[in-house]
Amino acid sequence: MTPTVALTVARYACLVLPLAALAAAALPGSAALAALRPGAPVPDPAQRRRRYGAALLSFVAAATGVAALDTVAQWLGWWSYAPVDAAWRGLPVDLWLGWALLWGPVPVLAHRVLRTPVALLLLLWLDLMAMPRLDPLVELGPHWRLGELAGIVAVALPAQLLGRWTARDRRLHPRALLQLVTFTGTALWLIPTTAFTYGDGSWDHLWRLPSPALPLLVQLMALVSVPALAAMREFAVRGHGTPYPWDPPKRLVTTGPYAYLANPMQLSASLLLLVLAVGAASATLAVAAVAAVAFSAALAAPHERADLDGRFGPAWRAYRTQVRDWVPRLRPLPQPAATVWLDRDCGPCTAVTRRLLDRQPANLVVAAAADHPEVLWRARYTGPDGHHARGTAAVARALEHTHLGWAYLGWLLLLPPVAWLAQQLTDAFIAAPHPARAQAAAARP
Question: Last residue of a domain, which of 308, 329, 350?
Answer without folding.
Answer: 329
